[in-house]
Amino acid sequence: MLFDDQFIQYFASFAFHATERPIALLILPGGERHLFVPRLEREHAQTFAQAERVVDYPEYPGDVHPMQRLAVHLKALGLDRGRIGVDHDGYPAVMGYSGPPVSEVLPDATVLRVSPGIDEQMALKSPAELALIRESVRWGDHAHRLLQKYTEIGASETDVEARATREATAAMVAAIGEQRRTPNRWLSGAVALYRGQIGAASALPHAMTSGVRFQAGDTLVTGAGAGVGGYLSELERTMFMGEPTAEQRTFFAHMLALQDIAFEALKPGATCASVDVAVQAYIDREGLQAYWRHHVGHGLEQRIHEAPFLDRGDARVLRPGMVLSVEPGLYVPGLGGFRHSDTILITDSGMEILTFYPRQLDDLIIG
Protein backbone atom coordinates (compact mmCIF):
# COMPACT_ATOMS: atom_id res chain seq x y z
CA MET A 1 0.00 0.00 0.00
CA LEU A 2 1.80 3.07 -1.29
CA PHE A 3 0.90 6.73 -0.71
CA ASP A 4 3.98 8.57 -1.98
CA ASP A 5 3.21 10.13 -5.37
CA GLN A 6 6.62 9.20 -6.81
CA PHE A 7 6.31 5.56 -5.74
CA ILE A 8 2.84 5.50 -7.31
CA GLN A 9 4.22 6.92 -10.54
CA TYR A 10 7.02 4.34 -10.53
CA PHE A 11 4.69 1.36 -10.14
CA ALA A 12 1.60 2.61 -12.00
CA SER A 13 2.85 5.40 -14.33
CA PHE A 14 0.31 7.75 -12.78
CA ALA A 15 1.55 11.33 -12.34
CA PHE A 16 -0.68 13.56 -10.24
CA HIS A 17 -0.68 16.55 -7.91
CA ALA A 18 -0.77 15.35 -4.32
CA THR A 19 -3.38 17.26 -2.31
CA GLU A 20 -5.34 16.73 0.90
CA ARG A 21 -7.33 14.03 -0.91
CA PRO A 22 -5.59 10.67 -0.29
CA ILE A 23 -4.42 8.58 -3.23
CA ALA A 24 -3.08 5.08 -2.68
CA LEU A 25 -1.77 2.26 -4.82
CA LEU A 26 -2.49 -1.30 -3.70
CA ILE A 27 -0.25 -3.99 -5.16
CA LEU A 28 -1.98 -7.29 -4.46
CA PRO A 29 -0.36 -10.72 -4.11
CA GLY A 30 0.39 -11.72 -7.68
CA GLY A 31 0.96 -8.13 -8.82
CA GLU A 32 -2.54 -6.84 -9.59
CA ARG A 33 -2.73 -3.08 -8.97
CA HIS A 34 -5.69 -1.20 -7.54
CA LEU A 35 -5.49 2.60 -7.62
CA PHE A 36 -7.55 4.30 -4.90
CA VAL A 37 -8.41 7.90 -5.83
CA PRO A 38 -10.91 10.68 -5.07
CA ARG A 39 -13.83 10.88 -7.48
CA LEU A 40 -12.38 13.94 -9.22
CA GLU A 41 -9.32 11.87 -10.28
CA ARG A 42 -11.20 8.81 -11.56
CA GLU A 43 -11.20 9.63 -15.28
CA HIS A 44 -7.62 10.89 -15.03
CA ALA A 45 -6.52 7.61 -13.48
CA GLN A 46 -8.52 5.46 -15.89
CA THR A 47 -6.98 7.27 -18.85
CA PHE A 48 -3.33 7.41 -17.82
CA ALA A 49 -2.59 4.93 -15.02
CA GLN A 50 -1.31 1.42 -15.56
CA ALA A 51 -3.55 -0.26 -13.02
CA GLU A 52 -5.93 -3.18 -13.34
CA ARG A 53 -8.62 -1.45 -11.29
CA VAL A 54 -9.46 2.12 -10.25
CA VAL A 55 -11.49 2.52 -7.05
CA ASP A 56 -12.80 5.96 -6.10
CA TYR A 57 -14.35 7.65 -3.06
CA PRO A 58 -16.58 10.78 -3.04
CA GLU A 59 -14.45 13.42 -1.32
CA TYR A 60 -12.21 14.23 1.64
CA PRO A 61 -13.04 14.34 4.49
CA GLY A 62 -16.51 13.12 3.47
CA ASP A 63 -19.17 11.50 5.61
CA VAL A 64 -16.94 8.40 5.78
CA HIS A 65 -13.20 9.10 5.92
CA PRO A 66 -11.27 7.88 2.83
CA MET A 67 -8.99 5.70 4.98
CA GLN A 68 -12.06 3.90 6.32
CA ARG A 69 -13.26 3.35 2.75
CA LEU A 70 -9.83 2.00 1.83
CA ALA A 71 -10.05 -0.43 4.75
CA VAL A 72 -13.47 -1.62 3.55
CA HIS A 73 -12.01 -2.30 0.10
CA LEU A 74 -9.17 -4.36 1.57
CA LYS A 75 -11.57 -6.32 3.75
CA ALA A 76 -13.71 -7.11 0.71
CA LEU A 77 -10.57 -8.53 -0.93
CA GLY A 78 -9.77 -10.58 2.18
CA LEU A 79 -6.52 -8.67 2.66
CA ASP A 80 -7.23 -7.00 5.99
CA ARG A 81 -5.17 -9.57 7.92
CA GLY A 82 -1.59 -10.71 7.65
CA ARG A 83 1.28 -8.51 6.50
CA ILE A 84 0.83 -5.23 4.64
CA GLY A 85 3.84 -3.33 3.37
CA VAL A 86 3.53 0.47 3.40
CA ASP A 87 5.70 3.46 2.64
CA HIS A 88 3.83 5.47 5.31
CA ASP A 89 1.50 4.26 8.04
CA GLY A 90 -1.29 6.26 6.46
CA TYR A 91 -1.51 9.15 4.04
CA PRO A 92 1.03 11.87 4.97
CA ALA A 93 -0.01 15.33 6.17
CA VAL A 94 -0.31 17.04 2.78
CA MET A 95 -2.16 20.39 2.46
CA GLY A 96 -3.95 20.04 5.78
CA TYR A 97 -4.84 16.34 5.55
CA SER A 98 -5.42 14.43 8.78
CA GLY A 99 -6.64 10.91 9.25
CA PRO A 100 -6.11 7.55 10.94
CA PRO A 101 -3.05 5.40 10.17
CA VAL A 102 -3.26 2.09 8.33
CA SER A 103 -2.50 0.24 11.56
CA GLU A 104 -5.63 1.74 13.13
CA VAL A 105 -8.12 1.09 10.33
CA LEU A 106 -6.74 -2.44 9.82
CA PRO A 107 -6.08 -3.55 13.40
CA ASP A 108 -5.71 -7.24 12.47
CA ALA A 109 -2.91 -6.58 9.99
CA THR A 110 0.83 -6.41 10.60
CA VAL A 111 1.98 -3.15 9.01
CA LEU A 112 5.59 -3.10 7.79
CA ARG A 113 7.63 -0.25 6.27
CA VAL A 114 8.95 -1.16 2.82
CA SER A 115 10.30 2.21 1.64
CA PRO A 116 14.00 1.25 1.87
CA GLY A 117 13.43 -1.75 -0.39
CA ILE A 118 11.58 0.37 -2.93
CA ASP A 119 14.34 2.99 -2.87
CA GLU A 120 16.87 0.22 -3.56
CA GLN A 121 14.80 -1.12 -6.45
CA MET A 122 14.42 2.34 -7.97
CA ALA A 123 18.16 3.04 -7.64
CA LEU A 124 19.05 0.21 -10.04
CA LYS A 125 18.09 1.31 -13.54
CA SER A 126 16.95 -1.01 -16.32
CA PRO A 127 18.15 -0.48 -19.92
CA ALA A 128 14.77 1.10 -20.72
CA GLU A 129 15.09 3.52 -17.83
CA LEU A 130 18.64 4.42 -18.84
CA ALA A 131 17.48 5.16 -22.38
CA LEU A 132 14.96 7.68 -21.03
CA ILE A 133 17.58 9.29 -18.78
CA ARG A 134 19.99 9.62 -21.70
CA GLU A 135 17.25 11.32 -23.71
CA SER A 136 16.64 13.64 -20.77
CA VAL A 137 20.34 14.49 -20.75
CA ARG A 138 20.20 15.37 -24.45
CA TRP A 139 17.36 17.85 -24.00
CA GLY A 140 18.69 19.30 -20.78
CA ASP A 141 21.90 20.04 -22.66
CA HIS A 142 19.95 21.76 -25.44
CA ALA A 143 18.02 23.89 -22.95
CA HIS A 144 21.25 24.93 -21.20
CA ARG A 145 22.88 25.98 -24.48
CA LEU A 146 19.91 28.25 -25.14
CA LEU A 147 20.13 29.62 -21.58
CA GLN A 148 23.79 30.52 -22.06
CA LYS A 149 23.10 31.94 -25.53
CA TYR A 150 20.35 34.30 -24.36
CA THR A 151 22.05 35.48 -21.14
CA GLU A 152 23.47 38.98 -21.52
CA ILE A 153 24.09 42.07 -19.43
CA GLY A 154 20.84 43.85 -18.67
CA ALA A 155 18.61 40.91 -19.56
CA SER A 156 16.10 39.65 -17.00
CA GLU A 157 16.60 36.28 -15.34
CA THR A 158 12.88 35.55 -15.78
CA ASP A 159 12.86 36.39 -19.48
CA VAL A 160 15.98 34.38 -20.29
CA GLU A 161 14.76 31.32 -18.38
CA ALA A 162 11.34 31.47 -20.01
CA ARG A 163 12.74 31.84 -23.53
CA ALA A 164 15.26 29.01 -23.20
CA THR A 165 12.75 26.67 -21.55
CA ARG A 166 9.98 27.43 -24.04
CA GLU A 167 12.17 26.92 -27.12
CA ALA A 168 13.87 23.80 -25.78
CA THR A 169 10.56 22.19 -24.80
CA ALA A 170 9.06 22.95 -28.22
CA ALA A 171 12.08 21.38 -29.94
CA MET A 172 11.91 18.31 -27.69
CA VAL A 173 8.20 17.75 -28.28
CA ALA A 174 8.69 18.15 -32.05
CA ALA A 175 11.49 15.58 -31.99
CA ILE A 176 10.17 12.90 -29.62
CA GLY A 177 6.44 13.59 -29.39
CA GLU A 178 4.19 14.82 -26.61
CA GLN A 179 3.44 11.34 -25.29
CA ARG A 180 7.06 10.46 -24.49
CA ARG A 181 7.39 13.67 -22.57
CA THR A 182 5.22 12.22 -19.77
CA PRO A 183 5.25 14.86 -17.03
CA ASN A 184 6.06 14.23 -13.43
CA ARG A 185 5.95 16.43 -10.36
CA TRP A 186 9.30 18.07 -11.09
CA LEU A 187 9.62 18.61 -14.85
CA SER A 188 7.22 18.40 -17.76
CA GLY A 189 9.53 19.56 -20.54
CA ALA A 190 13.08 20.75 -21.13
CA VAL A 191 14.06 23.33 -18.53
CA ALA A 192 17.00 25.69 -17.97
CA LEU A 193 17.12 28.23 -15.17
CA TYR A 194 19.16 30.11 -12.60
CA ARG A 195 16.85 29.75 -9.58
CA GLY A 196 18.04 33.11 -8.31
CA GLN A 197 21.71 32.07 -8.14
CA ILE A 198 22.98 35.24 -9.77
CA GLY A 199 25.77 37.48 -8.47
CA ALA A 200 26.19 37.43 -4.69
CA ALA A 201 22.96 35.38 -4.38
CA SER A 202 24.67 32.50 -6.19
CA ALA A 203 26.31 31.79 -2.82
CA LEU A 204 22.89 30.58 -1.61
CA PRO A 205 22.71 26.91 -2.73
CA HIS A 206 18.89 26.90 -2.86
CA ALA A 207 18.10 30.49 -3.74
CA MET A 208 14.77 31.38 -5.36
CA THR A 209 14.12 33.07 -8.70
CA SER A 210 13.94 36.81 -8.10
CA GLY A 211 13.78 38.31 -11.59
CA VAL A 212 17.02 40.29 -11.30
CA ARG A 213 18.97 41.54 -14.31
CA PHE A 214 22.42 40.26 -15.21
CA GLN A 215 25.35 42.55 -14.47
CA ALA A 216 29.02 42.53 -15.43
CA GLY A 217 31.07 40.48 -12.99
CA ASP A 218 28.20 38.23 -11.86
CA THR A 219 28.90 34.66 -10.88
CA LEU A 220 26.07 32.48 -12.20
CA VAL A 221 24.99 28.99 -11.16
CA THR A 222 22.61 27.29 -13.57
CA GLY A 223 20.34 24.27 -13.63
CA ALA A 224 18.96 22.28 -16.55
CA GLY A 225 17.21 19.00 -17.25
CA ALA A 226 14.23 17.47 -18.99
CA GLY A 227 11.37 15.16 -18.12
CA VAL A 228 11.29 12.26 -20.60
CA GLY A 229 8.98 9.35 -19.93
CA GLY A 230 8.81 10.52 -16.32
CA TYR A 231 12.61 10.32 -15.92
CA LEU A 232 15.03 13.15 -15.16
CA SER A 233 18.66 14.19 -15.39
CA GLU A 234 20.63 17.01 -13.82
CA LEU A 235 23.04 19.50 -15.37
CA GLU A 236 24.45 22.53 -13.56
CA ARG A 237 27.26 24.89 -14.47
CA THR A 238 29.07 27.86 -12.97
CA MET A 239 29.38 30.71 -15.47
CA PHE A 240 30.61 34.31 -15.39
CA MET A 241 29.38 37.57 -16.87
CA GLY A 242 32.59 38.81 -18.42
CA GLU A 243 36.19 38.03 -17.59
CA PRO A 244 36.35 36.42 -14.13
CA THR A 245 38.54 37.91 -11.42
CA ALA A 246 41.51 36.07 -9.95
CA GLU A 247 39.38 35.15 -6.93
CA GLN A 248 36.60 33.76 -9.11
CA ARG A 249 39.14 31.74 -11.07
CA THR A 250 40.63 30.33 -7.87
CA PHE A 251 37.34 29.07 -6.49
CA PHE A 252 36.27 27.75 -9.90
CA ALA A 253 39.48 25.70 -10.05
CA HIS A 254 38.87 24.33 -6.54
CA MET A 255 35.31 23.36 -7.49
CA LEU A 256 36.48 21.58 -10.63
CA ALA A 257 39.12 19.72 -8.61
CA LEU A 258 36.46 18.59 -6.13
CA GLN A 259 34.30 17.18 -8.91
CA ASP A 260 37.28 15.39 -10.48
CA ILE A 261 38.07 13.78 -7.11
CA ALA A 262 34.47 12.59 -6.85
CA PHE A 263 34.60 11.15 -10.39
CA GLU A 264 37.73 9.14 -9.49
CA ALA A 265 36.10 7.77 -6.33
CA LEU A 266 32.90 6.62 -8.05
CA LYS A 267 33.07 2.91 -8.86
CA PRO A 268 31.16 -0.27 -8.09
CA GLY A 269 31.96 -1.66 -4.67
CA ALA A 270 32.87 1.71 -3.18
CA THR A 271 30.56 3.17 -0.57
CA CYS A 272 28.66 6.40 -0.99
CA ALA A 273 30.41 7.66 2.13
CA SER A 274 33.86 7.13 0.64
CA VAL A 275 33.13 9.61 -2.18
CA ASP A 276 32.17 12.36 0.25
CA VAL A 277 35.17 11.58 2.47
CA ALA A 278 37.56 11.86 -0.50
CA VAL A 279 36.10 15.22 -1.50
CA GLN A 280 36.16 16.61 2.03
CA ALA A 281 39.78 15.56 2.47
CA TYR A 282 40.65 18.07 -0.29
CA ILE A 283 38.45 20.70 1.37
CA ASP A 284 40.25 20.23 4.68
CA ARG A 285 43.68 20.25 3.03
CA GLU A 286 42.96 23.49 1.15
CA GLY A 287 41.22 25.23 4.07
CA LEU A 288 37.85 25.49 2.31
CA GLN A 289 35.57 24.16 5.06
CA ALA A 290 33.97 27.59 5.60
CA TYR A 291 32.61 27.44 2.03
CA TRP A 292 31.23 23.87 2.11
CA ARG A 293 27.45 23.53 2.43
CA HIS A 294 26.22 20.08 1.32
CA HIS A 295 27.16 16.53 0.38
CA VAL A 296 28.60 15.53 -2.99
CA GLY A 297 25.46 14.26 -4.70
CA HIS A 298 22.42 12.02 -4.72
CA GLY A 299 20.49 9.48 -6.73
CA LEU A 300 18.35 10.51 -9.70
CA GLU A 301 15.45 8.92 -11.53
CA GLN A 302 11.84 10.11 -11.32
CA ARG A 303 12.59 12.31 -8.31
CA ILE A 304 14.98 15.24 -8.44
CA HIS A 305 16.59 13.88 -5.24
CA GLU A 306 16.49 10.24 -4.20
CA ALA A 307 18.59 7.58 -2.51
CA PRO A 308 21.43 6.82 -2.28
CA PHE A 309 23.28 9.94 -1.16
CA LEU A 310 26.97 10.68 -1.66
CA ASP A 311 27.35 11.58 1.98
CA ARG A 312 29.76 10.41 4.65
CA GLY A 313 26.77 9.10 6.64
CA ASP A 314 25.51 6.81 3.84
CA ALA A 315 27.25 3.44 3.97
CA ARG A 316 25.41 1.96 0.99
CA VAL A 317 27.55 0.34 -1.67
CA LEU A 318 27.58 1.74 -5.22
CA ARG A 319 26.29 -0.81 -7.73
CA PRO A 320 26.17 -0.94 -11.53
CA GLY A 321 22.96 0.66 -12.79
CA MET A 322 22.87 3.46 -10.24
CA VAL A 323 22.45 6.98 -11.64
CA LEU A 324 23.59 9.89 -9.48
CA SER A 325 24.29 13.60 -9.57
CA VAL A 326 27.82 14.73 -8.74
CA GLU A 327 27.68 18.30 -7.46
CA PRO A 328 30.24 19.32 -4.84
CA GLY A 329 29.95 23.07 -4.35
CA LEU A 330 31.72 25.98 -2.71
CA TYR A 331 29.79 29.07 -1.59
CA VAL A 332 31.66 32.28 -0.87
CA PRO A 333 29.60 35.08 0.73
CA GLY A 334 29.81 38.28 -1.27
CA LEU A 335 31.46 36.57 -4.23
CA GLY A 336 29.18 33.75 -5.34
CA GLY A 337 28.61 30.03 -5.63
CA PHE A 338 30.74 27.57 -7.54
CA ARG A 339 29.00 24.31 -8.49
CA HIS A 340 28.90 22.03 -11.48
CA SER A 341 26.48 19.11 -11.45
CA ASP A 342 26.74 16.16 -13.81
CA THR A 343 24.63 13.04 -14.11
CA ILE A 344 26.67 9.84 -13.94
CA LEU A 345 26.04 6.10 -14.29
CA ILE A 346 27.84 3.49 -12.21
CA THR A 347 29.04 0.79 -14.63
CA ASP A 348 30.59 -2.65 -14.20
CA SER A 349 34.09 -1.17 -14.48
CA GLY A 350 33.71 2.34 -13.07
CA MET A 351 31.42 5.18 -14.01
CA GLU A 352 30.20 7.01 -17.12
CA ILE A 353 29.48 10.74 -17.24
CA LEU A 354 26.15 11.00 -19.06
CA THR A 355 26.00 14.80 -19.27
CA PHE A 356 28.34 16.33 -21.85
CA TYR A 357 28.09 20.10 -21.50
CA PRO A 358 31.52 21.82 -21.38
CA ARG A 359 33.04 21.99 -17.89
CA GLN A 360 36.08 24.19 -18.47
CA LEU A 361 36.21 27.87 -17.55
CA ASP A 362 36.87 29.29 -21.01
CA ASP A 363 33.61 27.77 -22.31
CA LEU A 364 31.56 29.31 -19.52
CA ILE A 365 32.43 32.99 -19.84
CA ILE A 366 29.61 35.13 -21.26
CA GLY A 367 30.51 38.26 -23.22
How is this fold's topology laid out?
Blueprint: H1 5-12, E1 24-27, E2 33-38, H2 42-48, E3 53-57, H3 66-76, E4 82-86, H4 102-105, E5 109-113, H5 115-123, H6 127-150, H7 157-176, H8 178-181, E6 190-193, E7 219-221, E8 223-226, E9 238-241, H9 246-265, H10 272-285, E10 297-299, E11 306-310, E12 323-326, E13 329-332, E14 336-339, E15 342-346, E16 351-353, E17 365-366
Parallel strand pairs: 2-3, 4-5, 9-17
Antiparallel strand pairs: 1-2, 6-8, 7-9, 10-11, 12-15, 13-14, 15-16
Helix pairs in contact: 6-7, 9-10
Give a verbal description of the structure.
With 367 residues, this protein is α+β, with helices and mostly antiparallel strands. It folds into 2 domains: 5-113, Creatinase/prolidase N-terminal domain (Creatine Amidinohydrolase, Chain A, domain 1, 3-Layer(aba) Sandwich); 123-366, Alpha-Beta Complex (Creatine Amidinohydrolase), CATH 3.90.230.10. Helix content is 33%, strand content 19%. It has helices at residues 5-12, 42-48, 66-76, 102-105, 115-123, 127-150, 157-176, 178-181, 246-265, 272-285, and strands at 24-27, 33-38, 53-57, 82-86, 109-113, 190-193, 219-221, 223-226, 238-241, 297-299, 306-310, 323-326, 329-332, 336-339, 342-346, 351-353, 365-366. Strands 1-2-3 form a 3-stranded mixed β-sheet, with helices on both faces. Helix 6 (127-150) crosses helix 7 and helix 9 runs antiparallel to helix 10. The longest helix is centred in the middle third of the chain and has 24 residues, at 127-150. The radius of gyration is 23 Å and the shape is globular. The protein starts with a helix and ends with a strand. Residues 2-115 form the Creatinase N-terminal domain. This is Xaa-Pro aminopeptidase. GO terms for molecular function: aminopeptidase activity. Keywords: Aminopeptidase, Hydrolase, Protease. Residues 132-348 form the Peptidase M24 domain.
